[in-house]
């Protein structure tokens, strides 16, 4: 019974379905993507292009080496085949066929040799094999009307064969094709030779294996679309090339490649080429490939593009599968979401009516049960917050608008000036400026320099009221002066610093500004009496908890009050939200420092 219940419960579990679907639809394409990117390295395009050029040349080297090994294999078989060597040594020693069956025996021996040669070449690439004995006897796997094997003795390299020792091979290289039927197909041929020796040191014959040059160049032509490949001899001359007319020419870039800073890249006639070389250990010849750099890069880019498209298609397919399966499993959530949207638009009477034994069923039932309470809470919170914001903004931003008082003060200032009392006139002038700032309410945001000017006038007024004056020090980054800030956000801080920090005695006030990431930072510092750590902790707590005014009345007497700071903090948080930051540092007997981070106003922000 327990097993049966678990079996029925798990398939109905939304969590189980979501987990399985996530594993299949997310991890599988992630593994495929990882495998693709592991196969295709992400090195620089230049290194990758050079690497691919080397890889292509190594591939060519494999085919060419196999072809030369095939020639070597034929020569080795001729040299090591005991039956052939018995016949060849006897013929070279002047064996005379006598008797009634003389012609048949001679034919049989010759057939054995030619059959063995044919068997060696029947499964591989086409190769012309010539066995030439000292006495002029010869064996070959081609018709004599195509070429007379004795003409090999007239070749300029033939005398060098007698200098070979043991199993040494002589790679003759590229020469004009001597076989009549093959001249039209390939004008050049490549040959190698070995000596046939008996018990002594003097050879009794020679074996020459020849292939057509186009058997090598055909390998090169497979890469002709974007890569020029050639075979060079020890002197740097072309032995094999897709263009047979260039055979015999010297490789034109060998000297240039040695002078380049990067030997893999050469520049010729305004175009860069990737040059790859590979020496053939078997022959001492060298394979060289030249690839236009632009074509190599283009091909690599197309590879990466195709890989990207494969990834994109793979992720798209699995995304569709994931969306389909998740959509099927979470269809009840769609209904629940629509109900939530209806509630968000203000209709709290709607219900989801979702029921079931899985998580979604429990969620729908709980959601329906909470809608009544949510309706009441939303209504209450909306009304409370609206009243609170209006009250706070009215309290923090409301300013007296006494036009008549401003005009009267201007009249008084002019009269005092005429009477010669310059100090009183200056005091009235500063007060008038403050009133002008209060009266002018066309906009709530002003440049920082206007706010600083207001603070300067305010400090002048305060210095005229008290016996000992406080000095104001300004260090303002000029790039911050035009940043828009809320009106009168510094005045409560300066007032607290003068009244509670300096306690109306001499001291200094410091205001600094500098640019910060995404906004500006303002520092306000005084050298007053500061606060104890306990008082500072209470202040920070009140700022974080947005305390009400009645709670602020319990602040310690003769200490730095949080009234002005709380007003500033509340107003700035209303304006900027959580982007605004304020930090208070203080030490008893060593003054107080307040740091404010003010983010720059974005389009649509209102102060």
From TrEMBL:
Cross-referenced Pfam families: dCache_1 (PF02743), HAMP (PF00672), HATPase_c (PF02518), His_kinase (PF06580)
EC number, as in UniProt: 2.7.13.3
Cellular localisation: Cell membrane
Residue stretches spanning the membrane: 18-37, 303-326
GO cellular component: plasma membrane
GO molecular function, one term: phosphorelay sensor kinase activity
Record keywords, A-Z: Cell membrane, Kinase, Membrane, Phosphoprotein, Transferase, Transmembrane, Transmembrane helix
Main location: membrane
Protein name: Two-component system sensor histidine kinase YesM
Lineage: Bacteria, Bacillati, Bacillota, Bacilli, Bacillales
